[in-house]
Amino acid sequence: MASLLRAIVVAVRSWLRTMRGRRASLNAPADRAEEENRESVASQAEVRRQAEDVARLAAEAEGRQKADEEARAQVAAEAEERRQAEEARLAEEAETRRQSEEAARAAAEARRKAEEDERARLATEAEARRRAEETARAAAEAEARRKAEEDERARLATEAEARRWAEEAARAAAEAEARRKAEEDERTRLAAEAEARRQAEEAARAAAEVDVRRKAEKEERVAGEDEGRGHSEADAGAWLQAGAGRPPAAEEVKPANGEGSTEEGTDPTARRAPRTRAPRYRGPAGGSPAPRQAPSTARTAAARTEPVAAGNRVLPVELRVRFERDGSLRVTLLPRRVSGLPDELTVQGPSGAVDLFALQEDWYQDIAPQNLGALLCEGVLWRDESTGQEWLLSGREIFVLTSGTAHSGLVSCPRLVLGRKHAILCTTSSLAAVEAVLREAGCDAWTTLDENDGAPRGWVFLRDVWQRRPLPWTDNSDILNALRPLPQVEIALEGGICLGYSSWLAEHPPSIRVYGDPDHTGAVQIDRQNATASDDGRYTAPGWDSVGPHQVWCKGATKSYTLVRREPPSQSWAAFSFPAPGARGGRIAICGPLVRAFTDSQADGEEAATSEIIQIAPANPVLLGSVPGQVVVTYPRPDVRGAQCLVASPFAPVWAIPAQPLHCDKRENRVRLVGEPFPPGEGSGEVKARISRLSIEQWCSAIQDAGRKGLAVEPADPAVVELWRRYRRYARDLWRRLR
User: Fold this and answer.
1) Range with the lowest mean pLDDT among 13-22, 125-134, 592-601?
2) Domain that includes residue 171, residue range
3) How far apart are CA 462 and CA 450, in angstroms?
């Protein structure tokens, strides 16, 4: 466009110069006019040409301009389109970015909410775990405390039972020894009498035979000396064949006291030789107890002469099974320990020396021998060579185990019990018989473990054995009887006058009753004699109420009792005394079961250790005397509801108050006058020369607490109420002086 304008400007300037030259040449000659005319024409033609060129150029410029404008318009349109497309793209991208940002924000919000929910969930789970851990820890602590208490109770019960059994065994042994001595003395006396009668009969028979022979000899001598001698010998041979004895010589007659009856070379006092191997286990038998055998002379003599050492009795070796974390089991031997045995010692066994280390007061540590399977079959016998103490586990093919009270895991027990979970360790050869008995008893599910699970070689372990119904025992000593649970039979000794543990007064024996399943109770025997039941269920048998030890048996359950006869003491004393009821006065003295009238004149020949017995209500167990420091507290019987409290007070009590006056109900509790209304600081009877300050403070504090609570006085007599006020003032003043 600029070049077109410059061309137009150049053409216009050229035309203007031409016109100025034409005006300057008007005055030239005519020849020049033509030339000028031609030049003018030429210039006009040139001008026209130039104008045409200019027009053409202008048209071209205009066309180019239009084209440029169209191009520019097209470019602008394209630019506008591109701008619009770019704006649309940018808008779309912006929208996309916005949507992406919104989606990202939504996702971030969702993630934030998810994180918050996750944090809340984790916090909730952590709180739940914390609470569960606290609950579990509290439960574990409670369980540990409960187990500790149960273990302590079991230990105390075991100790008490052991003491009771020891006392019963000692008492039974003493009574059996006394009875045995009496029986042996009686047998000795009867034997001496029988021997004397036998000797007298033999002497009489011998004398009669001598008389017969003499008469025969006298008759035969009449016929002839030779013939008489022959008849005499024939008669003598006939008598000998008939069993008649000849008259014993003086030196052949046995003494009447039974001496010399022991075989030559036998020493009844000789100690039993130590065992070399453990005995075999004999299973329980289902029949009634065998008749009691009379002890031989040698055994009774040995029992009298040989002292039995308590520490040398045979101690048991129990079988223990514990389960590892991987489910396998560990079988060990658990030897018993008693007081007096060392913490560490070495014993000799069938497989060599074994070291024992104390585990608890009553047990040594577990022993795991290499050949445990063979030892269980053959038995275990350990002996301390220095003291002769033995530990024994009899050999058998079947062991019954249950949960122990003093150890973890399972410990051997005598037999299966109904309703309790057990385990059985048996040999592979006896497994079929064991399973048959278990199925017969209603046990249909158990877990079997073999050598791969830790059982001894040749043995099988049956876990989780539950017996559902009882089975009768066979009469022979079958080891499978230990797998046949007996019915739940309980022998109860009720009533009578019990002197402690299993001893009763002979004049007041206990009533023998049997409780349990009537279908399985069976026969009851007392001292191996069949017992009969009365209409009220009490069992008796001949001699059941005689003095001495007795035993009751029923379906494998036994219970022993001893009847003793106690002579009353020759001297009595007034252990406790009561005021006698009625208007006569006097006192009643109690000494054990003896209750009688008692006067002061009777105290001269007796031990007059009397104490005043007072009966008070359980709501007022604190007694106060008139002298500061006279305080005594009694306790009601926990086994009798509403029972009165009996107290032997060393002073004359005046008041009875509640145990905690500040915390009692003033509408129901009272301050009761229980004795003579002595003024405070005065009293009757002997007063201790020195009373502790603590007792005086307790006396003052009890009276002031009852006064602060505002407890009413009983009886509500004005004189009694005024006396209580005097006690309150006296206690307050004394308390201030003490402070």
Assistant:
1) 592-601
2) 2-10+44-215
3) 9
